[in-house]
Amino acid sequence: MLYQGGKLFQCGRNMQCILLCMPSNTLFILITIKLLTCQFSNYKIKHLTDQLYNDWRILKSPQECEIMKTYAAKARLLSLIYSMFYLTACPIYPFTTLTPKILDIVMPLNKSRPIIMPYPAHYFVYDDTEYFYYILFHATIIGTLVLTVLVAHDCVILTYIEHVCGVFAVAGFRFENLVYKHNGKKNDMDKIYNQKIVSSIHVHWRALKFAESLENTFSVSLFMQLLMIIVGTSVTLLQMAVQVENIFEVYRNATFVLAHLIHIFCFSLQGQKLIDHSLKMHDKIYNCSWYKMPMKSQRLLLSVMRRSMQPNMLSAGRIYIFSLKSFMTILQTSMSYFTVLASFQ
Questions:
Q1: SS3 for 244?
Q2: Residue 117: which region, alpha, beta or left (left: phi > 0; alpha: psi -120 to 50)?
Q3: Which helix (H) or strand (E) holds 316?
Q4: Are 55 and 163 in contact (CB under 8 A)?
């Protein structure tokens, strides 16, 4: 941030130079927000982790364990793919600046091709190009470290969402299997049904509390992150439009935009999953043979059905709802800001 701040100071009032610095600055601000979220919300995150551990302890049957294991495997796979993309593909980004050096060896010209710096920064030296390899080494190390923060923060949230979806699935499994074959007395039957319903409601309540805690922990942070992503994407699209004749810069900027879009898409996909699982509870209760249950037991299900008509969701500042529909809204918003910025060129 120090060297990027130095570059902004060096730009002065040159808007072209400032816009050139904006994408990398928004990225580092984004990473800083994620780091501070983990720092200042570590107690809440620990509470969520403890609740995750306790949710596994309330499982009663092998079928419920298999359901949770399935969702845990999905969370592991998603985290692995997400981590591999950012920790392998993104560190390659600064090394693309070696392309002119390589081309000078493979396809030499009468004069050397201009050096491209890894990212806009001022290292408080007279000529940054003289220290190109030192700056490249620094950019690679710092980039890998900040991406580790990004991956750790995001994988925790994605795993929490997958877990709460698993808890909703366990609650739905219990509701679907409420009815049983009984040959005993009516009072015993009522007692058994009430116990099974209370057990199912307890799991559903735990899923609701976990989803609520998740929302309260990360909502404000995700709103600030979303603002940085929209600004960074819009400015990068503007750079692509301005430098359309420079294929190399277009490729670098397109990679930057793609990384932001994958970031938002993963959160939108998981947010949609959370919404769908919370709403499915209503259908799960309908699917059970509730008409075979005693009237008193049927009434206990009404409150759950009413609550399940209100979806649980992950939001950014309780303004933007992460879902596949909202993902398209982000694209439209970024394009709108890009259009506004392009009109000033």
A1: coil
A2: beta
A3: strand 315-316
A4: yes
